[in-house]
Amino acid sequence: MAKHSYSFYPGCSSQKAASSSNYQVSVDTMCKELDIELNEIPDWNCCSASIGYAGGGELPRLALSARNMALSEEAHPDQDIVATCAACWLATRETQERLNDDDELMAETNTALAEAGLKLKNDKKVRHMVEVLIEDIGYEELGKHVKKPLEGIKIAGYVGCQTNRPFGIAGESFENPKYLDKLIETVGAEACDNYEKKVSCCGGALAFSEPEKSQALIKDIIESAYDNGADMIVTPCPVCQMNTEVYQDQINATYGTKFKMPVVYYSTLMSVAYGKSAKEAALNGQIIKAKQLEEIAGK
Q: Secondary structure of the chain: what % helix, strand, coil (to 5)?
């Protein structure tokens, strides 16, 4: 039996061939090393993170996340819900808090869920994977599993806005959260101490609707990493990872920059430091290759 078991909400972007399927691979590798069991919520659905705000209304948007929560209670009644995607975590956590604070909205949501034979109690925590790592495992234990320290690599910890506002990680500053910096140091790398863009927004879905605005934001995020001497960026958010990695060529063409900054997940860093192969760490999913990590994984 695993030391730590959770009801797992994977989210759409983690699925095979989706934009963050490599994230899921590295999370699975990391969790196996740490004896964490993720029990997938059966028949889960999209959290409506983006399109839910486009005109469907509040109740349908909240009901989508509430359905996942009710299914979790039914399948894994004693387990907290854990999400790896920042948007999924935010949408589900918002639903939990909104329904806890509004009895009428809770009743309306359960009326909607009753059509599918479900009822939500709303009595389990909704947590991001980094919360589990920090609160249930702890930095000291995470460090004990390091077999290949990531020495000689300087990394900018890009938290982004979704895992930082409005809820954030317990005990962390909204303006200058330190948990990514601590994780970077735990695996033997050097964190950028003064990375001033660590909680800046990457533009999210504006990358599609208003790309010039999003790319201006992304440019500042990457430029700040370079200014701080970073070799790469690490993030806990699939949208942040995608936006800051895949648009660098377009930004270079627009602004005359020469960006080629690898952007990886914390779980990728941890998997490499834990002695896993490049494939197990999902380094093959990088568009901009993290060559320093590949070298360490290949040793």
A: 50, 10, 40
Helices in 156-290 by DSSP H: which ranges? Answer: 179-186, 206-209, 211-227, 238-246, 248-255, 266-273
Domain boundary among 129, 154, 187: 129
Nearest alpha carbon to residue 162 among 106, 270, 231, 83: 83
Residues in the chain where the model's pLDDT stays below 70: 1, 50-56, 166-168
C-alpha torsion 30→187→134→226, nearest 10: -110
Same domain, 88 and 189: no
Domain membership flag for residue 137: no
Specify the pTM.
Answer: 0.94
| pLDDT at res. 54 | 58
Domain that holds residue 36: 4-129
- Contact at 8 Å (CB) between 291 and 233? no
166: buried, middle or exposed (CB in 10 Å: 19+, 13-18, 0-12)?
exposed
Q: What's the CA gap between 210 and 215, in Å, rounded? A: 9
- Are the C-beta atoms of residues 93 and 65 closer than 8 Å to each other? no
